[in-house]
Amino acid sequence: MRLLNCLRDNLHWPKRVLGISKLSAFEFLKITHSDLSHNQLLNQLRKQSIDPDEILAKHHRQLTCEKELAGILHNLNVNYRIMKRIDDAKCVDWADLVITIGGDGTFLLASKLITNNKTPIFGINPHPGTSTFTLPIEYSTDIERIFEKLHAEDYTVLMRSRIRTVMTGEGLYQQPFHVHEKSRMQNEKRVDALMRSTQRKIADALQPRQRILPWLALNESTPVRSITFITYFQVFMAEFLASRPIVLTIQADEEKRFMIRSSGICVCTGSGSRSWFRTMNLQTAETVQTLVAMATGRQLDEKETREVLHKYHSNLLFPPDNLKMAYMIYEMSRSSLWPKIISDKRMCCKIKVKSTGFDAGLVLDGSVSLPFNDGSTASFEIRPEYSLKNIILQ
């Protein structure tokens, strides 16, 4: 077991480790189709032109990674738990170290449950593909090597900035919903929807009008128009109906407030700058070539165009531990009725947004959503004590 024997007696070694594992697609299908046998479920997938071998392969990789991690923690004589779902945040408070098994989504789920900047976290991803937050995939087949590096202190700690959101308005204490549940609610019968709406209004009347949200956004915070576009690591605010724009009043730092009409606004950390913030600002080669030709009269060749694009896109990124956030106004209206001199993106330390939305929402990291309708405000701030302690192996 290489170095594991000497790790057992390390006084600085974490005594309580929590593993948060992704629910594999096959496990999810077994839960949602509990009436089908194993073979019946596989046949059902084949009928839908889904390759069952690929789903099973991912499932077995996930299980193998979980078992190997459990075996190593057992040999280290560490008190550990490996859980598929975390219903009680006390499980995270119990742990000295949190390890996620899965991709970026699993890492983000765990990060929301860690409310301090003391508990370290790292992620193991057993599945091929790109990942922003987890260790390189080679570690998933040699988990023992991770602990050897930790023992040798061959790692760094990255304090990833997170956004704290303070909201005022109605419906802040109702049960938050996942953004994908919104589409299912659209088909609700009108009489049932009115009944539910009345019940919510009565309950909301008894609740405070201000709330510090218990979830710290690692990526983004966004008031949203169209939930279809939401991804991770930011806050997004806009209308839920994709075709309906939203009017927002924005104040960045201590500057003068301004009003805009757009499809929404995205507020992100340095971690989130590599996600949807970057995607919203991507430019095509044709756009670059056209602008340069108009400005200089010269046509860029393919190599020059790639260099300009790379330089521009790289400039959109900023460090994950930066104590500033960036906002991006998505599809801002620039008609004669609305000011044209406003920049659609910028860096700031604080930002406050007021909504005139009709059926709008604020979404944290592409998952948790709260209503953000007419008169509601949301204030965003980053401080060192909100950071996430992320272990990065050298």
Automatic annotation (TrEMBL):
User: Which GO CC terms are listed, alphabetically?
Assistant: mitochondrion
Q: Which Gene3D superfamilies has this protein been placed in?
A: Probable inorganic polyphosphate/atp-NAD kinase, domain 1 (3.40.50.10330)
Which InterPro entries does the record associate with it?
A: ATP-NAD_kinase_N, NAD/diacylglycerol_kinase_sf, NADK
What general EC class does the enzyme of this chain belong to?
Answer: transferase
Q: What is its EC number?
A: 2.7.1.23
UniProt GO MF annotations: NAD+ kinase activity
Q: Name one GO biological process term.
A: NAD+ metabolic process
Family indicated by similarity: Belongs to the NAD kinase family.
Q: What is this protein called?
A: NAD(+) kinase
